[in-house]
Amino acid sequence: MNRPDIVIVGGGIAGASLGAVLADRASVLMLEMEPSAGYHATGRAVSFWEETYGGLAVQPLTTASGPMLAAPDPDFSDTPFLTPRRTLHIGRAGDAAARDRLLEQFGGKVDLVPVEPAGLVPGLRPEWTLGVLEPGVRDIDVAALHQAWLRLFRRLGGEVRLATALRRAEARDGGWRVETDRGAIDCTMIVNAAGAWADDVARACGVVPIGIAPLRRTVVQLRVPAMPAADLPLVMDLASQFYFKPEGEGRVWLTPHDEEPSPPCDAAPEEMAVAEAIARFEAVVDWPVEAVERKWAGLRSFSRDRAPVYGFDPAARGFFWFAGQGGFGIQTSPAAALLGAALLRGEALPPQIMGIDPAPYSPARFR
Predict the structure, then answer these.
(1) Which residues is 190 bridged to in the sheet?
(2) What pLDDT is attached to residue 342?
(3) Domain limits at 124?
(4) Which of 78, 148, 183, 190 has a C-alpha 20 to 30 A away from that of 257?
């Protein structure tokens, strides 16, 4: 496929989901620079479906995606991608303003219940006196979801070209000439779903970057045999200094909620961040840490206002942004893909996302 209608740059959750929605009515070629799709952010995500995560700009996309993840079309998946979890937002006395802000911002939009946190997390240290339960939170099977998008994309005729990077592109004859590691491709549109590399891809296409910033997030897997149960809630700090969740019996996935600026790269964990994560964990619960079993890092990429960027660049005909999804691209992927496809095709929004306003996501806000 060297003359597709659309070239999508990036095979992570963004490119895979949008490609799957577009491929039934267009010829679509996906370029993935790595030997496997989803190697970077998607493959390293500690993901969950949480309506408050990402803030008010992201919540409509998350909420609309919930039913599609919980009860997917049988042609897409014969099993749901969500399993029960819950989130307990916790804080100390000084975090009362953050608690009140959470309740005020999402009141009437998300089910939130003020609680005494100690009863929900045995071993919680006594200074953690503030709690807000978000009972609707679910774990996401990230690998299954990503593979389902790729499987649907291929079934509809899309092609994934691995280990193939876009080197440069130029607008010509009403379309684009794309130069890659494996030769030239002519297409009508380019979709920039390159995650941490989104601004680099724009530059390679002669398009002005919009300021997509990659931020490193560190995760560690701890062995904690004293953890009371594997079905405890995800515990999230109201002050955004950590979150952790059980990962099977006696194991926890933990992050210090770090956001260190980074160039686009194969991110690796910093020992200082790992040590900080463990120190924060030990200040929350009295479960002894027996061992660090794994540690890794990924890049979460944000626009300047931390809302995703979906739409055609107003100054570059046929160049479509689908980037800046931060740490919420997985939980929003069904709604975001439907929104992106409608914008790209110039069509009305489908019923599943009819109530979402696309304007806050337009790249025009940065031009």
Answers:
(1) 7, 319
(2) 98
(3) 87-135+213-302
(4) 148
